[in-house]
Amino acid sequence: MNKQYYRDYVTLTNGEYQYLLDKFGEYELDRKLNALNDSKIKKPKRQETIRSDYHALLSSGMQTVEPIRDRLQIEAMKQELRQKSERNYFLFIMGINTGLRISDLLPLRVKDVFGQTHIVMKEKKTHKTKRFLLNLELRHQIEEYVRDLDSDDYLFPSHKTGLPIQRVQAYKILNEAASRVGIKAFGTHSMRKTFGFWHYTIHKNVALLQDIFNHTSPDITLRYIGINQDIVDKSLEHFSL
Length: 241
Description:
The protein is mainly alpha-helical. It contains 14 helices and 4 strands. It folds into 2 domains: 4-59; 71-188, hpI Integrase, Chain A. The chain has helices spanning 14-24, 26-42, 44-47, 53-58, 71-84, 86-98, 102-105, 110-113, 136-145, 167-180, 189-203, 206-213, 218-224, 227-237; strands at 3-7, 10-13, 118-122, 129-133. The chain starts with a strand and ends with a helix. One of its GO terms (molecular function) is DNA binding.
């Protein structure tokens, strides 16, 4: 299978990249790709001992980000974010209710969501045009949030520049809030995984969720939202010889 360059000196197959992205999330994987690339520049001979860039990234100690499986923790996260910033709270609300990637959420403007039943966009990762439904409760939240904003304003602006906050800032905001309420293994990708986990928990329709996420198989979708691991854990809980 052909490999592509994801940095100047880091190559992965599309399948390898997708697996790492689903496992670790955009921010964490981006950080590790940069670190591996820098390492290969500084110590090229040392890198010759590594079987592949894929294995180097897998063994680099990245923590797998997880969905929030507890509704009480979701509510705690909402409260924690809202008392600090309405913008940060709304970012979390949008993330867990649409399942959009953080790279697609941050550039959104008021006109993209206000008065709309769907978000229509070209996904940055896949370059495919997708329609994402805005549920009724989320539409009410949008109306409240954008009340004093102009149509061309960004939904998640930096207070300094007015431009969208960067992914690293979004990660820090959400990760710190998660830590304060006792949520572990949380990253920006956790919002998308939380959407998927609860969509499956409520509807039990993996084929539908697979289509929403553009995954190639149901197994990938179940593993992505942490259902496979839950099943394994449950099967072993009372297993004793």
